[in-house]
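Give me the fold.
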Amino acid sequence: MSNGRRSPWLGVVVGFAIGTIVVGFLLLWIYLFDLLGWFQLQLSTPDPDGRIKYLLSATAQVLGALFALVFSITLIAVQFVTKYTHRTMGIVFNNWITYLYMPVFALSVIISLLFLFFNPVFGGAIISLSVGVLVTLSLVPFFLYLKDRMKVETIIQHIKDEGIRALKVKDFETLERKINDLDNISMGAYGDHNYDVLDLATEALIRFAKEMEEHTKDVGDEETQEYYYHNLIFECLNNTLEEGINDTRVPTIIMSQLGKLAPVTVSGNLITTWKLIRDLEIKAEKMIVEKSSRPIYYKEAMSSYAARILYLMAMAKEETKKINDQEFQTIQSAVEIHRRHLNKGWVRFSVLHLRRTCMLALKYRDSIELYYSFPALGDIMNLKILPEHLFDYLDYWKEKGEPSDVNQFCRELEPLVAALSNNKSFPQLKQFLADNFRNYGNIFLSKNNTWHSVGSSLLEHADSLE
């Protein structure tokens, strides 16, 4: 049975155990079969004054005490880690430790006792001491192995690796256990306010989902068991988010981990993971805004972060003239979050939202032009929402903003206007933008003198596009 990522020190421990067996049998072979006559004669020296018996007795006692102390202390230490998952015991005491190292350690005690009771000669003392020295020296790599193996990140990695192996052989019972193990670690860490462990467990769950899709993306059937367990991972993340919605750090951890993986998932064309990340991000944003009791500035910041992740997912896709359903829904979700901010009067991040909208409009200008040129296409994947959304900001600022806000708007538009004005393509898109710039420019010119420079800037943009 495989036991996940092996500690580099496990090989040293196993090496000492095997070396102890080899040395022990070699010395015993020399002793029993008289391969070295003179040496065997020395080894057969009797023990007239009882010193050999004392040495064998002391060796057996010391090794026996070491055996009891080492493994009892190890068991106690493991208990401190098992508060997150009961799998820790099996991870630390794997087959090599249970069926090789511990028996060899116990055998070193038994060898001393056998020579003590049946043949207490100098040769027996040499064999007993040699085996005892090797076993004692092996404690150094054994404790280094324990130090590495008992790290929470090692345990999490081990569980994830076992889950991936279970997935490859379609052992779905084991797969579900491993997902639940990671979920238990995540929830246990939240209960202890151990955010470092929560971060590690969340990252493992999300990367587990990505690797699952790498193995199953050719299946393509949402009724398969693989898809069910893929979805189960994101349900676990959603449950942790709901449980910790009023915590200052739980939503941040989950959303930041989603943010790290989202562009990688998109560029790898992992459609299912992309969809699940997007759906969870939207749920997270809504939960934070609607259910969290945190202050408004926290909600605004986290909601803006959710929109940023959706934006990254949309921008991570390679340049293409055709937009697919995943990209459209991602962009649509980001725009909805931006509009929600404006409706609530949350404008601290409006410049960032505007900048991202401009960059998306520039990237998908081919698809946008298509819908202006052929209105009969209807609203399916209609990316006209991007240029239309630009003027949501002007609608807000003409009522509640300052000239400086609109001046910033004009500056953010400059890359988009420059790219379109220097290109003979996209006549419909350019006409739509020019008409609206001229309309809003005249509106601002009709206001008091402080708005005249704003109106003039918008009219300049209109002239550049016509």
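The CA atoms of residues 368 and 384 lie 6 Å apart.
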